[in-house]
Amino acid sequence: MRKLKNNELGRKSVNDFKKSPKIPVTVILDNIRSMNNIGSVFRTSDAFLIEKIILCGITAKPPHNDIRKTALGADESVDWEYFKETKDAVKLLKSKNYTVISVEQAENSILLQNFKPENKKKYALIFGNEVKGVQQEIVDISDHCIEIPQEGTKHSLNISVSAGMVLWDFYRKIKIENKK
């Protein structure tokens, strides 16, 4: 087995990425402190053709060297916008018929593996602060909560890890499984 070289990976240019059809998922970052986490979410969103990232509250905005360090240019390919208040972003997306989902441990949450995205629906996935998670007022106005099952002592994952798992799962269910 031979490791592939970068020029063998079939990478899209930023312009080609912008023109590519995206999966109907927008990511909302609710008060994320770490710029490395923000950059990582940009990079993951680029990998799985996410339509947009909405940065809210204290979440830093590009351009910033600490975001760029982990985004590796994905902050230029993935569309983004900023809202001071997360609830305003949620209300806007709901008015555009998005199903809003907080990724959070909550009563009546749906385990990630049990959530089935519906064809032709648009989704907004909210990832919360590294310490406090998604704000309760945002959980309250969400349509669902999805929970990543965990069995260890922490029951806590880094936001960039959570985003990677959830975005891969949505990409797989929407783009790969719907083609079968």
What descriptors fit this protein?
180 residues; 7 strands; seven-stranded parallel beta sheet; single chain; alpha/beta; 7 helices; 36% helix; Alpha/beta knot
Architecture overview:
- Helices cover 36% and strands 21% of the residues.
- Helix 2 runs parallel beside helix 3 (65-71) and helix 2 (35-47) packs parallel to helix 7.
- It has a single domain, classed as Alpha/beta knot.
- The protein is of the alpha/beta class.
- It has a 7-stranded parallel sheet with strand order 3-2-1-6-4-7-5, with helices on both faces.
- The longest helix is centred in the last third of the chain and has 18 residues, at 159-176.
- The chain has 7 helices and 7 strands, in the order αβαβααβαβββαβα.
What is the assigned CATH homologous superfamily? SPOUT methyltransferase, trefoil knot domain
CATH class descriptor name: Alpha Beta
Helical stretch tally: 7
Please state the overall shape, judged from the principal axes of the Cα atoms.
Answer: globular
Radius of gyration: 16 Å
The total beta strand count reads: 7
Helix-strand layout with pairing:
Layout: H1 14-19, E1 23-30, H2 35-47, E2 50-56, H3 65-71, H4 74-77, E3 80-83, H5 86-95, E4 98-103, E5 110-111, E6 122-128, H6 136-141, E7 144-147, H7 159-176
Helix pairs in contact: 2-3, 2-7
Task: Characterize this entry briefly.
The protein has helices at 14-19, 35-47, 65-71, 74-77, 86-95, 136-141, 159-176; strands spanning 23-30, 50-56, 80-83, 98-103, 110-111, 122-128, 144-147. It is of the alpha/beta class and 180 residues long.
